[in-house]
Write a sequence for this structure.
């Protein structure tokens, strides 16, 4: 698969547009979306990135693209695929580091979705495990406690709907699976910054209301472009689509011995 772009964008319902809305395939690129089912539930960033790299095997990759908190994993993947001395170029769209706060907020939202009530009754052990220190030092334990809690809460709801205990647990396990995949992704993103490998060339495309700065990005070269739109519309905005096309150029013809310098217009 020559002239391939790797795109990291966790699937699922959300208000924001998606990287697939850039329609890069229409410009002749082959696009890989390695964050897909079956998802990795690794919370170690190196393991998570290794899983993504396996899904890119055999492809001639020109650049790695990422949205939001997939950015730290994209940076690490670019280093893994290209090597420490020559990391692949990276293109972020409202890229930002993962945070413990985002993990905890997501857990509260999920518990509310599972039970219909606010997540105010998380036990002390789980609360401590989800603190920043717990997520950094014992992330597997945090995921274990969270999975147990989610299944128990979900099973209670299914029992109220008339299922017996075994049926309720089985249903809760199925329902909680995607949520746990999502949280594992967030935890891996959060932990990817401790420590972080230095990226090569990075281009950040920001929406006008993106609240997170770019000082977290450690790269040999960094270019920043701002699109005058709100965050939710960034990837659907025609200006973003044209900017991405200009930055990436077009794939090399099949008869060409070499491809374009991806993102070169942004970093030279």
């Amino acid at each position: 698969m020559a002239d391939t772009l790797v795109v990291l964008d966790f699937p699922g319902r959300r208000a924001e547009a998606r990287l697939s809305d850039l329609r890069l395939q229409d410009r002749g690129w082959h696009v890989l979306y390695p964050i897909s089912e079956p998802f990795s539930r690794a919370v170690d960033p190196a393991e998570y990135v290794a899983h993504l790299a396996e899904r890119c095997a055999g492809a001639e990759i020109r650049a790695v693209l990422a949205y939001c908190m997939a950015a730290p994993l994209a940076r690490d993947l670019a280093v893994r695929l290209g090597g420490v001395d020559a990391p692949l170029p990276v293109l972020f769209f409202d890229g930002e580091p993962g945070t413990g706060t985002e993990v905890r907020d997501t857990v509260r939202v999920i518990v509310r979705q599972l039970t219909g009530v606010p997540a105010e009754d998380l036990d002390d052990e789980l609360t401590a495990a989800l603190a920043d220190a717990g997520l950094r030092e014992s992330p597997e334990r945090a995921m274990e406690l969270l999975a147990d809690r989610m299944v128990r809460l979900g099973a209670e709801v299914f029992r109220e709907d008339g299922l017996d205990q075994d049926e309720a647990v089985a249903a809760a396990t199925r329902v909680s699976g995607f949520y746990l995949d999502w949280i594992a992704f967030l935890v891996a993103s959060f932990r990817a910054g401790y420590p972080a490998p230095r990226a090569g060339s990075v281009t950040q495309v920001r929406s006008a209301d993106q609240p997170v700065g770019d000082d977290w990005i450690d790269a040999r070269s960094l270019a920043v472009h701002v699109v005058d739109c709100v965050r939710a519309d960034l990837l659907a905005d025609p200006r973003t689509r044209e900017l991405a096309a200009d930055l990436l150029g077009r794939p090399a013809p099949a008869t060409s011995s070499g491809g374009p310098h991806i993102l070169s217009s942004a970093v030279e």
